[in-house]
Specification:
The complex is a heterodimer of chains A (291) and B (279).
Chain A (H helix, E strand, L loop, with lengths): L1 H29 L6 H17 L4 H24 L8 H22 L4 E2 L8 E4 L2 E4 H23 L1 H11 L1 H6 L4 H27 L1 E2 L3 H16 L4 H20 L5 H16 L16
Antiparallel strand pairs in A: 1-4, 2-3
Helix pairs in contact in A: 1-5, 1-8, 1-9, 1-10, 2-3, 2-4, 2-8, 2-9, 3-8, 5-6, 5-8, 6-8, 9-10, 9-11
Chain B lengths: L2 H24 L8 H18 L4 H23 L4 H21 L9 E2 L6 H18 L3 H11 L1 H6 L4 H27 L1 E2 L6 H14 L5 H16 L7 H15 L7 H14 L1
Antiparallel strand pairs in B: 1-2
The chains are: A mainly alpha (291), B mainly alpha (279).
Chain lengths: 291, 279
């Protein structure tokens, strides 16, 4: 029972990790909060659903979900962020709220406000390890998350694009003087962030085999907490804190006190902001290790 | 006046107060995404006093405002350590904490909600809304407000010329929290039923949107923004299912063309000039 809940929590936590990473890519680079990420996550879920319902394989669902969300993220950057780059950081935050409203409305009109459900038996094959039953889909969720997080970390640490990303986040003007196209890097970060949120959406909707247009808000806020606790500028922080929060959440649902968990999660987030603003695993602000 | 318009007007009055609560804090360059939390506190305290202790509504609202003010000051102190987007995230967390607290706080109904408050009239709501708006407009001409704006423009320089920046910023939080609590108390006694879901993140966002749409540099902007936020989705009814999307598009357009909001000082001055000329 305990072990079973642990696996369930890990699955949920993997999704928090992906969405938190999606937030922190934009936050680490531009110090703005893209609220619409919650809705990109939701959109990814619906796209994945549609692809699976049309009898395409899981990989296609992931690709379409990620691609669709990345494309919308491109629009958000071009319309909602780039023209407002000189404005105070509140303004782009609000324009992303505008996009949230639009996305939620469009999805509700296209797919309806009632929860969509996948026909059962599609992904509920299970593996038995001792007394623990692990759904194949749970393994997929955890596996895909690990691969995605590792690729993002590699991309940021080892590639030219990653170096440019870190340079822009450290000092946009100097990076531009050195020949980095800051606008293009910003666009790249937005799209990568969208793709991650989209992937998380596909994974969670297939895991629960159900989706509603309103899943984005709760998951989004929770992922912001995961990002802060793990460190807004650290990839690895989200990887550890996401599963911790996921497990804590599943445990409190299983063993009572489920209403208290949000109180604790957001309390932890505030304490982190006050006492350790760089997050659990974040580097100190002076030894620049952004994103 | 039909009950339909009366309902809309009541919503506007309550939203004006919510927007002002954000505006007061924003004047010192602090963005609060958690004012629904202060609203919830005011709502529950006022409801407890009228429904359980049989107080009249007005003293209950005042005590609720004072309670929230104290909590606002308590929140304001740690908030001094945070700036910009991090402060916004922390206040967002505060709002969610308050909401989840009332979800488990069974003496006041928990997730089942709470009822039993007396109903207040539309006129009563607007006496409060107009009164606070007037108070803020008067304050805007005072030295205190100049000091708040100085903190907004350059905190360090403000401190150098002898402004107590700590007191100003914490005081703004206390004042804003009190106004949000009044909005909450009026909300509870208008709908005569409250539940924690009434005070979610969306509510905090509505307050901020009203300020930004209406005009974030003048108090009267809260009135314009609140009216727009309530009436626009009604006016867009001909778009049927797409009215929220249209609202989102309009929001983005306003942000792109007038980041300071619809109402600002030059526009106010222009309106005043016209009125004088007509007279």
């Amino acid at each position: 029972m305990l072990l079973q809940q642990l696996v369930n929590g890990l699955t949920l936590g993997a999704v928090y990790t992906l969405v938190a990473l999606s937030f922190s890519l934009v936050m680490g680079l531009l110090a703005i909060l893209n609220i619409a990420i919650g809705e990109l996550f939701m959109l990814g879920g619906y796209l994945g659903f549609a692809v699976i319902a049309a009898h395409f394989p899981l990989a296609a669902a992931l690709l379409i979900g990620m691609g669709g969300a990345a494309l919308v993220a491109l629009v958000i950057d071009k319309i909602g962020y780039e023209p407002l780059r000189q404005a105070p950081p509140i303004t782009p935050l609000l324009s992303t709220i505008g996009f949230s409203i639009i996305l939620q409305n469009v999805v509700t009109n296209v797919w309806g406000s009632d929860p969509l459900q996948l026909p059962s038996g599609l992904f509920d094959r299970r593996v038995h390890i001792g007394s623990v039953q692990i759904g194949v889909m749970q393994l997929v969720v955890i596996g895909v998350t690990v691969v995605l997080v590792a690729s993002v970390a590699l991309l940021i640490q080892k590639t030219a694009v990653g170096r440019a990303l870190r340079a822009v986040s450290e000092n946009r003007e100097v990076a531009r003087l050195l020949g980095v196209s800051a606008d293009r890097i910003t666009l790249f970060a937005f799209m990568l962030s969208g793709a991650l949120a989209g992937a998380a959406g596909v994974l969670i909707s297939l895991h629960y085999a159900a989706i509603t247009p309103y899943i984005g808000v709760d998951t989004g806020l929770k992922a912001i907490a995961v990002m802060v606790i793990g460190g807004t500028t650290s990839v690895w922080g989200a990887l550890i804190v996401g599963p911790l929060i996921g497990i804590a959440e599943v445990m409190t649902i299983a063993f009572g006190g489920s209403q208290m968990r949000d109180f604790v999660v957001y309390g932890l987030m505030i304490v982190t902001l006050l006492l350790r603003p760089q997050g659990l695993l974040g580097a100190r602000s002076d030894s620049g290790q952004p994103v | 006046m039909s009950t339909y318009y009366a309902g809309l007007l009541a919503d506007i009055g309550i939203l004006v107060l919510g927007a002002l609560s954000v505006y007061i804090i924003l004047v010192t360059n602090q963005l609060s995404l958690g004012n629904a939390g202060f609203m919830a506190i005011g709502s529950y305290v006022a409801s407890f006093l009228t429904a359980e202790q049989h107080w009249a509504v007005t003293p209950a609202l005042i005590v609720a405002a004072l309670t929230a003010c104290v909590i606002g000051v308590i929140v304001g102190f740690p908030a001094l350590r945070l700036k910009g987007i991090y402060l916004a995230i922390a206040t967002l967390g505060f709002g969610e904490m308050v909401r989840s607290f009332f979800l488990v706080f069974t003496p006041m109904g928990g997730s089942g909600g709470y009822r039993g408050m007396p109903h207040v009239s539309l006129g009563y709501i607007w006496i409060w809304a107009a009164g606070i708006l007037l108070l803020v407009t008067l304050l805007e001409r005072s030295r205190l407000w100049l000091e708040m704006r100085a903190v907004h423009d350059d905190e360090r320089a403000a401190g150098l010329v002898g402004i107590n920046t700590t007191l100003t910023k914490v005081g703004a939080f206390g004042f804003g929290a009190a106004v949000a609590a009044i909005a909450g108390g009026l909300f509870a006694h208008h709908y005569i039923y409250i539940e924690p879901g009434n005070f979610d993140f969306q509510r905090s966002i509505d307050f901020v949107l009203a300020v930004i749409l209406g005009g974030s540099t003048v108090g009267a902007g809260a009135l314009v923004g609140a009216a727009l936020l309530v009436l626009l989705p009604e006016w867009l009814r001909f778009l049927a299912d797409w009215r929220l999307a249209a609202f989102g598009v309009m929001l983005i357009l306003v942000l792109l063309t007038r980041p300071q909001g619809i109402l600002d000082r030059p526009l106010l001055a222009l309106l005043r000039l016209r009125r004088n000329r007509a007279a």
